[in-house]
Amino acid sequence: MASACLFAVQTFAQELPPDAEPGKCYIKCITPDEFEDVTETVVVSPEYKKLVTYPATFKTVEERVLVKEASKKLVYVPAVYETVEVPYVKKEKATNLEVVPAVFGNDSKVIETYPKIGRWEYTELEDCPSANKEDCMVACFVEYPAKNQVVPFQTLTSDATTTPVPVAEVPATYKKQVVKTPARVEEVEIPAEYATIKRQVVDQPARTESEVVPAVTKTITKTVLVKKGGMTVWEEVDCNLVSGTPNLLPIYYELASARLTEDSKKIIDEHLLSLMTEKPNIRVEIMSHTDSRGDDDYNMALSQQRAQSVVNYLVSRGINRSRLVAKGYGETRLVNRCANGVDCTEEEHQQNRRTEFRIIR
């Protein structure tokens, strides 16, 4: 069960901390005294990259080539020619790509879904000689074992790669006439002769396009026994953190990714980790968003992964998971005009790939 928190300011005279100061904000937290249901997200299929290759394409070009050189001929003795073959590249060499797909393995994890507990149970003895049945009650301490669940999941053994496949060059030749013996005595001009040949050249080289297949997660709910509470704790907080407007956590994600960079982790340490460490009784909601590009359902799932990545990082730094709530809003809360079909710059789209937080009750 999550802690219950009430927001209070100095303008109300009732239910305030005894040492409250004017103009400051406080949170009243009451610790729970029952079982708590918590969730744990397990990656059953990891994020991986899918590759698609496109072979090189060729185009046919025409070239004007010299097939007979200019010369002169004589009135009495004409010029003599001979034919030679000239080599050229009819089709240039290139390289195509073949995909080696990703390889997966299988693994599993045992999760305790209900803890080991014990309690006193009362039974009445048979053939009780006393008229008062309470004189014949027997108390026994009974223990109940813990319950476990095995969760299978996939692991990425090796990611997809490509192998080059060479395309050989195709040579060819054409014939041309050259002057072997020039004309003598009276010279007559013989103009050059040209022809048009066709050959294939690379229009677009072979290329590879990649698509990131997001990770598939499974949420397991387990019940954890906690200590009895009932104590009231007041925490003083910055009034800006309990206003109606969510507080921006200035980390911006890469397109179609929920990965936290090292710079993002430093910002979380500065804005959230320090706050939750200093105020150990407050709870925080993490709200993540996407830009408008892509499928709406995919963006909603992606934003939930982004919020969960912040929660998982704070848990790894020692914050109790029960103090954190992850919520993804997809592309439903854009901060600018960049909705579906609107032409925007990458910087404008990045403003929507954001995370916010707020202190909750």
From TrEMBL:
Q: Which InterPro entries match?
A: Bact_OuterMem_StrucFunc, OMP_bac, OmpA-like, OmpA-like_sf
Domain called OmpA-like: residue spans? 240-361
Compartment(s) where it occurs, according to its Swiss-Prot or TrEMBL record: Cell outer membrane
**PROSITE patterns reported for this sequence:** OMPA_2
- List the Pfam families: OmpA (PF00691)
Key words of the record: Cell outer membrane, Membrane
Quote the protein name from its UniProt record: OmpA family protein
